[in-house]
Amino acid sequence: MRFFASFLLTAAVAAGCGETAASMSPDDAGSDASTDPDGGVDGGDLDGGVDGGEPDGGGSWCKTGGICPACPDPDALCESDIDCDPGEVCITTGCEDLSRCFVSGGGACQDDEDCGNPAYMCNQEINRCLRVGGGCDDSNDCLAGFACEGGACADRRVPCVSGADCPHGFTCFFPSADQRFCRRITRPCDNDVDCLTLGVLPCGDADGDRSRECMPSRMPNAPNPVSCDNVECILDAAPVCETSVEGLSAVCGQFGLCASSDDCANDRFDCLDLWGDGRKECVLRDGSCGDSRDCTPPQLCGSPRTGGPPRCISGAAI
User: Fold this and answer.
1) Whole-prediction pTM value?
2) Per-domain residue ranges for the chain?
């Protein structure tokens, strides 16, 4: 979807409390758009750079763990979507059985034209693009940490302390003090704005399949960073763009996006769509899972950064 770039850039940088997530119910999880208004990426900072010790969330009044490293804001707790404001959904936090309202929806808008997709309408009360019906067409229709599987959004939020706990192509995402989970880096995008909330710039087409996705640059600190492209990777041993643990840069490696197995390093690799969004990646053959549907939620199917073929990833033991 295409939105007001300058408006969303400003909003994304200015915001700091909400995040996009999705309902435990498949219908709810797919009922709102996907572009996150804000969030953060964890390269190893245990608290994600967010002070969670104040009374508005992050205290010790509840039992924390897993994807919920700090207690949620008591004022944001909910029992259903009815308890939430427009543009928010009620989902479980991972702290005990507590649910709270999470910001959802797409980018900024003034009318339906700004949403650029008939599946979305502009809610002029909050000036955000919201999905009209339930379900999903791809994982970008789902909210953060959820994947589109069989037309419904499935919870694939696995806990992490740093990006090393996540499989290749994912980073540790901490959108708020009470949420931290592995999140896919190479998500669908129309332009750089769609990638801003992950700190991943720019939007490109690494595998040349004419389907654009967020892909960091090999030189992220350059004045005008260019998305990594597989054509830059000329060595047979490292033929594809591989994202870093932090998700902020890319190198030529063996685990990255591909159009076919011919793009991969050798015949030990196959080109599979593990996440289910139509974006294939080079993986070692003979994995124990073919995509995340083979894994019990919230596990996800991925190539461990420690090496080996795809398997069901549980994340950090917290």
Assistant:
1) 0.79
2) 5-183
Q: pLDDT by residue (tens digit) across 112-136?
A: 988 877 888 888 887 878 878 777 7
Percentage helix, strand, coil for the chain under 3-state DSSP, each rounded to 5: 15, 25, 60
Q: Which of 8, 32, 5 is nearest to 20 (CA)?
A: 32
Separation CA 295–CA 314 (nearest Å): 10
All residue ranges of the chain with pLDDT < 70 are 1-59, 104-108, 140, 197-198, 318
Question: In angstroms, rounded to a whole number, what is the distance separating the alpha carbons of residues 217 and 134?
Answer: 35
C-beta separation of 132 from 141 below 8 A: no
The candidate with the shortest Cα–Cα distance to 66, out of 41, 95, 35, is 95
Query: Nearest-CA neighbor of 171 among 51, 64, 5, 305?
Result: 305
Residue type, 127: N
* Residues whose CB falls within 8 Å of the CB of residue 177, separated by 6 or more in sequence, listed in order: 47, 48, 50, 51, 52, 57, 58, 69, 70
CA distance 246 to 251: 12
DSSP at 181:
E
